[in-house]
Write a structure and sequence with these properties.
Layout: H1 24-35, H2 37-43, E1 47-51, H3 57-66, E2 72-77, H4 80-90, E3 95-100, E4 115-120, H5 151-154, H6 158-161, E5 162-173, H7 178-186, E6 190-200, E7 203-212
Parallel strand pairs: 1-2, 1-4, 2-3, 4-5
Antiparallel strand pairs: 5-7, 6-7
């Protein structure tokens, strides 16, 4: 039997109306993390970071995946309601820190070469660039041209953030040109592969996993 999906029923409350609720992309990411559980437990990560935590479902699930080991799980989001939702979802089970910030900007360079597990389900929907961050809701899904305008700001930072044994899990759709993303990070010393994919309506979702090249 698989690991339990975190309870996010509190998202039905009005104060969380702008928070992205778990959907097929979320569940695919959970499945990929659970499939990698033996590797993650063997890795014994110390610091994990989820960027764009939204409901906090993934951060909470990652804590379950890593149990019984104890890792610091840092969850960031630019939406203050998402930060509060993540706090309620994680419900003090594990060692969590929530931060309202874009990517990991508030941490400066303190996380460089220190992140053992980095997770990002970005705003990947193809939209006009002017729709990015136009509302708190849009910040969770509007990705601009090719659905890459937000992601492309983070990608050059990933090799700087990962620890020597670090892993980066990323959700994409085909319009994001995942093979191009893999090539971009391979040129910067990371090896990438599609570890799981699924059709969800019109979207062909993939989980990309990156590690340091040997």
């Amino acid at each position: 039997m698989g690991l339990a999906t975190p309870d996010t029923s509190h998202l039905s409350r009005p104060e969380y109306a702008t928070v992205y609720e778990p959907a097929e992309d979320t569940y695919l990411l959970l499945d990929a993390l659970e499939a990698d559980r033996p590797l993650l437990l063997a890795q014994r990560p110390t610091i994990c970071v989820e960027i764009g935590s939204g409901s906090g479902c993934v951060s909470s699930f990652l804590n379950t995946v890593l149990s019984p080991s104890t890792s610091l799980i840092i969850s960031t989001d630019i939406n203050p309601a998402a930060t509060r939702a993540t706090r309620e979802t994680t419900n003090n089970h594990g060692v969590f820190e929530q931060c309202q910030t874009r990517f990991v900007q508030s941490f400066g360079d303190r996380l460089n070469n220190s992140v053992d597990v980095l997770v990002f389900n970005p705003p990947y929907v193809v939209t006009p660039n002017e729709e990015i961050d136009v509302t708190e809701e849009a910040s969770a899904w509007a990705g601009g041209a090719c659905g890459r305008q937000v992601l492309d700001v983070l990608l050059p930072q990933v090799p700087e953030l990962l620890s020597p044994n670090g892993r980066f899990y990323l959700i994409t759709i085909e319009e994001n040109k995942p093979n191009e993303i893999i090539e971009f990070l391979e040129l910067r010393g990371l090896r990438g592969t599609r570890v799981m994919e699924r059709q969800a309506g019109r979207e062909h979702l993939s989980v990309l996993r990156f590690t340091r090249s040997e």
